[in-house]
Hints:
With 455 residues, the protein is of the alpha+beta class. 27% of the residues lie in helices and 24% in strands. It is built from 13 helices and 17 strands. The strands form five sheets. Strands 5, 6, 7, 8, 9 and 10 form a six-stranded mixed β-sheet that branches. The N and C termini lie far apart (75 Å). It is found in: Plastid, Chloroplast. It catalyses: 4-CDP-2-C-methyl-D-erythritol + ATP = 4-CDP-2-C-methyl-D-erythritol 2-phosphate + ADP + H(+).
Amino acid sequence: MASSHILCHNNVFNLPQNSSRKSSLSSFSSHGSCSFGSKPRFAETQFLKLLVSAKRQVEIVYDPDERINKWADEVDKQAPLSRLTLFSPCKINVFLRITNKREDGYHDLASLFHVISLGDVLKFSLSPSKTKDSLSTNAPGVPLDDRNLIIKALNLYRKKTGTDNYFWIHLDKKVPTGAGLGGGSSNAATALWAANQFSGGLATEKELQEWSSEIGSDIPFFFSQGAAYCTGRGEVVQDILPPVPLDIPMSLIKPQEACSTAEVYKRLRLDKTSNVDPLQLLDKISSDGISQDVCINDLEPPAFEVLPSLKRLKQRIIAAGRGQYDAVFMSGSGSTIVGIGSPDPPQFIYDDEEYKDVFLSEANFLTREANQWYKEPASASATCSPPNDFSHDFSQSIEGGLDYPLPCSPPDRDGCKEVLVNVKTKNKVHQWLWRLSKLSVPVLVKDFLDSEGFA
């Protein structure tokens, strides 16, 4: 296409003075000069079509906004990164075989690891300090010093690359600790990824994965695409295609008590573990999907010795969830029990006082794109914070078991919202009330009888 400079210096034609079609050119002369004026009142891109020859028509598009946006994009690309927010998802072990005890005291394992949609959020900002990272969190009991894997990961990155970036980090913790979900390992992997972004990508993903094994066996997995067959201590990661559909729902149920990984391995007896070939388990899952017989976890028996109530919880979930779950199993070294096939926990979780303090979450499988970190699913972010539109969230949360919820004006109590609920099924009501209890505003609920008189 000819440039505007060339066209402005060609004797093509003169614009009529009374032309009803205004141009973004304030003047146009056949004597070789032209000047650009301000954009028209509707800020629409103007087209000046010039007949250059009998055989060719050239179109000029002049849009100052587009040029400015391109300049701004270029400045953004060149500007150093100062802040970054990343999702830090956890994982489950669909099966976990312990195959051998090594001379170094560790155990060899073979496991199908898969990332799921439950996760923490990490916020990084460059710190002016050149000597120390600063970590904060919403979770009590989480160490904020060099014992934390996030700080260990940042120290490791500086050691490997020679960079001197230090950070302010805030950890918005949603994954419970001591759950067998790899929340801390995911945080470390996310911190390594973030440090690499701030440094302009000095390291490859493969290097980050290899380095991470120095501070944790499960950390390298998170540099996979989200599904992997892991061996060795867990640090030997073989990427695989997701063996099951990503939208399969699951329910995560974790009692308040945690299992000590060291204590679980201490009680492990290799002669009592399964003898099923883990590759056969992987093949069967890939061909037939997830079922109870393939979800083998050799750490369940010793974990149940450490925490007998965990064994009872699993047994009750299986008994109550017949027809609801395709498989029920413990993840990692515990203490989370996973129910595959439904996002809802069984009814006794809501009814039994023993389980009033359990952690509950629904989740799906999750993967990531190459050269990108994991993205937080919209549903996950929506359930982790109180909605702006209270009534809209209520209407979206109810499924069949409740009539349309009717939020009213807040009563006299400050910060309360009054909700009228037409009860139809006890299970749905309890699920709904449990979700309300997780919001950061107190809720006053009035129950009304339905046509069958069930309250």
